[in-house]
User: Fold this.
Amino acid sequence: MEKSNFYKFSVKLRWPAVCRNRSVEILKERPDIVEQMNYFREKIANILKIICRKPHQIDPSHAMSGVRLWFSSGQDVYDFIIRQPEFDWEIVPEISVINEITGEMQNYDVVYTPSGITID
Amino acid sequence: MPTKNTYISVVGALPISFDLHESMNIGPVVASSNSNKSLSFPYATVNSEQNLQDMLNSSNFKHTKLLCPEELFKKYLFFDGVTCLPDFPGLKTLELDANRCSPQILSLLLSVYFNPKIIFLLGYDISNPEELSRTKRIAISHPHIKFMYICNPPRTYQLDDLENGFCDSYIKYQEFIDGKK
Assistant:
């Protein structure tokens, strides 16, 4: 039987500037933006394959600000966050963690420091 | 999220000469920091950074959920085995601080959070009057849970004033486990 994955960590990656805050109506009229968004999703999938060692997932639901990504490993999400500049991406500086005991989602701010990142 | 467990065993800071694998037959075992490394525990509580680092580097705790207060959790959020302790209701009323209390008190708080029928206290140190008082306060605030203090003879009478506090020997504890197998 296939083992189900538990995606404990989640971050949101902002769309490229031209794709942000676009309503569904606008997207219907602008197939070029939709194409860019699809290309962006493909690119994310490829990069995740390179960075992540444990299972991960791109949230299929649409959000105006960006794409939600799910990670099962904390080390993978850390790598993904610190390697943003390499891919010229921008992550919403917030990380969500599902508490395995309570089942609740806890949100923390990601603070960038000269030596790396800290959680507040 | 853990399923409902009827019995939980809390392993305190004192050394134990009992096969803790046996305890796993009746329910989860919660370890208190790194004081006992005899078993791969399902859960272990910790509120000191030094101990947490030691546990993260120890192969015994590789498959253990290391539960720590939020303050410490934030520093180790990206470590896969580290989980944030839940917000224990009534902590202020109990005059307890999750960041400063002993790991065995944290284990006890976690166990009562799971709301079992009986909590077995193994290798649990109640020689310190403050620790005993904290344990009693937790027991009094959870009257529906039985707190079974397990020790070698002679038995202690320190929990006898509690309506839900009992004391028994490791032999009786083993017999209880055998009966549930």
Notes: The first helix of chain B runs from residue 20 to 23. The interface with chain A takes residues 1-2, 65, 67, 74-75, 77-80, 82-86, 110, 113 of chain B (CB under 8 Å). The CA atoms of residues 69 and 85 of chain B lie 5 Å apart. The longest strand of chain B covers residues 7-11.
